[in-house]
Amino acid sequence: MKRAWLRVRSVWRALRRPAQLDAAMQEEMRFHVDMEAERLVREHGLDALEASRRAHAAFGGLQKYRQEGRYVWGLQWIDRVSLDTRLGVRMLLKHRGLTLVGSFAMTAAIGLGATFFELLSQTRNPALPFPDGDRVVAVQYGTATPGSPERRVLRDFVAWREEVASLDELGAFRTVQLNLVSGRGLAEPVHVAEITAAGFTIPRTPPLLGRYLLPSDERPGAAPVVVIGYDAWHGRFGGSPDVVGRTITLGGTPTTVVGVMPEGFKFPVDHQFWSPLRLDASTQEGLEGLELSVFGRLARGVSMEAAQAELNIIGQHTAAARPEHDGQLRLRVFPYTHESLGITDPARAWALRLAQILVGALTFVVAVNLAILVYARTVTRLGEIAVRTALGASRSRILAQLFVEALALSTIGAAIGLILADVALERLQWMIVTNGSSPFWIHLDLSLGTIVYALGLAVLAAAVMGVLPGIKATGIHPTVNLRELNGRTGARLGPVWTTLVVTQVAVAVAVLPMAVYMAGNVVRMELSGAGFDADAFVIATMAMSDEVAAVDADRVATRQLDLMARLRAEPQVSAVTFSSSVPGIAPSRSLQFEGGRTMAAAETHEVNTVDVALDMFDVFEAEMLAGHTFNAADFGAANAVVVNRSFVRDLLHDRDALGIRFHYVGRRRMGAEAMPKSYQIVGVVRDFPTFPPSPLSDLVPTVYHPAAPGDVHPLVVSVRFGGSVPAGFVGRFRAIGAEVDPALQLRRVMPLADLYRVLRSLWRYVAWGMGMATMSVLLLSSAGIYAMMSFTVTQRTHEIAIRSALGAAPHRLVLNVFARAALQIGLGLVAGSLLSSAILIGLDVNIARLTALVLTVAAVMLTVGLLATLGPARRGLRVQPSDALKTN
Amino acid sequence: VTDSAALLPGTLDLLILKAVSLGKLHGYGVLLRIQQISGGALQIQQGALYPALYRLEQQGLIESEWGTSDNNRRAKFYHLTSAGRTRLGDETATWNRLADAIALALRTTRREI
Predict the structure, then answer these.
(1) Quick one: CA dihedral A629, A633, A635, A639, positive or negative?
(2) Contacts of residue A40 in chain B, CB cutoff 8 Å?
C-alpha cells in the first residue's frame, strides 16, 4: 500500500513538472560524464576532447538513459500521447473532408445528446436544493388511472399528520390564483400557495424579513396573513424594508404581509406568495373538499421503502373505511421532485431512463457511421501499419495511436456540441420562464455531470471510430498489408459495409422528408405571418376566481359583458370579441360524419374546436368562402357550425361542405347524452392564422361553434385597435379588469403578435435541432457512399486499366462502376421511402404532398449518391494501363 | 582483457543500496564506491545506474536532494531511507544464503556424494 502510494506520489510530481524533471535528469547525467572525463584527464593524461569521448562511450548514451529515466518516472505515455496527438492533428488536416463531416456529425450528436441529458437529468434528479433535499417526499393517493391521483385528501391529511411515524413533518398545499392589489392600486392575478407551516420548516430556510407562516395561522378565524418572496418584494413592493406589517388586498381580502423569504426560495413549485392553508377538516367529508398536494420529510434513518411500508398499512385502513372506492386507492410515497414533474409510476421513470440511454445511443450510431468512414481511411494506411508492425510496434501501440487520432476528431465535436447545448439550454430556460413557470429546482445550464457525460461520449465515440477499424485493420496479416505499399490492397469491405451503407441511405431517406416538411412549415410560419394584422390585437385570458365561477354563472356572464363594454369604450379600440382559445391554438376532438355524402361513417377525424363570439370572424377579418357567418339564430337547437378551409380540403376533399352533419365521438361532453349531438356546417371561413400551429403539423381542420357571453369560462378576450397597440395598454387592460370586479382575473395580457413570436421561436429551435441531425445523417450517408465507391474503384484500378487497355468503352466501365452504387442506393431508397411514408402518414400529411416529398427526397439522394461515385469512377478511368500493370 | 565480471541480473539495485548505505553519494560517486568496494571486479554500464537510482527512489528505498560536490558543482545526492536499510538487510541475507548454497554446491566432490 505504501509502495503504491509512493509510486502515485512520484508519478504525480513528475506529471506536475515534466519539464523540470527532464532538466534535472539531464543535469545529473551531464555531471556524471564531466566527472568521468575529468578523472580520465587526471589519471590517464588524456586530452579533454578524447576524455570526453571516452566518458560518453562509457556512459552508454545520454539520450537512451534519459528516456529510460522518463519511463521510470511514468512519463513515457506523455511522449506517446503528444506524438499521437500531433499525428492525429496532422491527419485531421490531411483528410479535411472527413474532418468536416465527422466533426459536424459529432457536434450534432453530442450537442443534442448533452441538451437532452441535461433536461432528463434535471427531471430525474430526486433532490431539492435544501439540506437533506433528497429526503423530501410527496405522499399521494394513486388511483386505478396512472397519472390521475386522488387529491381530495384534507381529512386524510389531518389523520396522517397524527399517525405517520416514518415522516418527520407532513405538510400540504394547493395553488390558487388570486388578484393582488397592492399600494399602487393595480390588480394583478398572482399564484398563491395556500400551504401549511411545514412548507417552511421542511426547507429549513429562515425568512429574510419578519416571520414565515406558523401553525397558529392555519386555525379557522386567524387573521389573514401572507408571506412574500424576494422577487415579489422587489418587483411589486420596490424592495421596501417596511413591507412587513403592510396590508394588501389578496383575492378581495385585506391581508397583512408578515414576512419576506430570501432570494431563490420558491417552495413548493415556483411560488412568490404563501398564505396559510386553513385546515377545517370537520367540514370536509371523506375525499370531498380541497385538492391538495401532500409532502413531508423522511424521519432520520428511515428509508423510502420503510416509509412506503408504513403508508401501505395506513392506506389499507383508509381503503377499508371507503368501500365505495373498491380498493383502488393506494397510498404512495416518492421523491418530491418526481411528483411535481409527474414521474409517479415506475413506467414513467423507466421511460425517462430509456430516453436518456437512447439519446446516448444517438452518439453511438453516429460514431459507428464515422467508424465506417475512418475504416476506409485506415485501409489506405494498411501499408504504413504493416511497416510499423514490422519495425516492432505492438498492436496496442498502433490501436492507441488510432484512438488518439479519433479522439482529436470527437473532441472537436464535443467542444462545439457543448457550446451549442449551452446556448440551447439557455434559450429553453428563457422560453419556459416566458411561457409560464418552471419548478424552482430546475436550472437549465450545463452541469458538470453533463460535461463529463459529453466528454465520456466523445471518448466512447473515439473508441468506436478509432479502435474498431484499427482492430480489423491490424488483424490482417502484415504481409497482406505490405502489398498496400505497392498500391494493391489486401483488405475487403465485406457485406457488413454494404449493409451499413444501405442502412445509411435508408435512414437519410426516412428522416429527410419529415425534416423537409418541418423546415417547410417553419419557413411558412416565418414568411406567411398570421394572415391578419396580429400587431393590432391584444389578448388576455379572463377568468373569475374559482369560488365565484363555481356558484354564480350569471355574475360570470355579466362581468364578461361589462369588461368587453369597458374595453370597447377605450380610445383607439376598434373592436372587442371573445373565443374559448387563442386563434390557431385550440384543443382537439374527434368527429364522425353522418350520412353517405362523405366517407365511411365509422371513420373518425381529429379537428380543433373553438367556441367563438358571433362577430369573431368580422373582427379578425376572416372572410367567408361559402355559406354564412354566425347570427343569433344559430344559438340553441340549430347546432350550426362554421368550418375552416383546411377542414374542407383535408376532410371533405374540396366537396361542398354546406349542410354536412357530423357528431363528436370520444371524450368530453358525452356523459349525460344518450345520443351524440349532431352539428351542421353552415359556413366555411378561410384559415386564420395562416401558419401551422407547429412544424410537425399542417394547418389544422377547425370547427367553430357559436357562443354567447357566459357560455365559455375562462375565455380569451381579443381587443383590436385601429392602428398599432398604444403604449401602456396592457396595464390599462388590467386596471379595467380590477375595476369591473375584484374577483376578475386577467391572465397573460399581451399583444397577440408577441404570443405568436414566442411560439414560433420555440419551433424555430426545434427545427434547427432537427435540421442539424438531418444534415449530419445526409452528410454521413453521402460521405459513406463516396468512401465506399472510392475504395471499390481503388481496388479495381488494375482490372479497369486492363479492360481499358483491351479496348473497353469508357462509358461501359463507368456504368459498371455505377451499377454497384445504384444497387445499394436503390435498396436504401426503397427501404427509406417505406419508412418515410409510414412516418408522414402518422403525421397526417396528405397523400399528394407525401408522394411529392418522398419522390423529391429520393431523387435528391439518388443524385447525391451518384455524384459521389462520379469522382472515383473518373479517377479509375484516368489510370494508365502501364501504371496499373506496374503494380502487378 | 579485464578481470572484471558482468553483473548478475538484479544485483545492481543491491549494490546501489550498499554503496549509498555507506554515506551520502551523488550518482557518479555511487559508481566509484561500487568499483571501490568490489575491488574493480564488477563491470557496470555507467548510464544504467540512473534508471536504477530513479526506480529505487520511486520505491522509497533511497531519497535525493541537490547539493554541492567536492569540485563545487551542483549535484544530486542520494541517501538510504529506513525502508532502504531494511531492504538492504533482507537482500544481503538472501544473497549470502544463495552465495553459500552455490559455493557449497560448487565445492562438492564426488566422494562427498
Answers:
(1) negative
(2) none
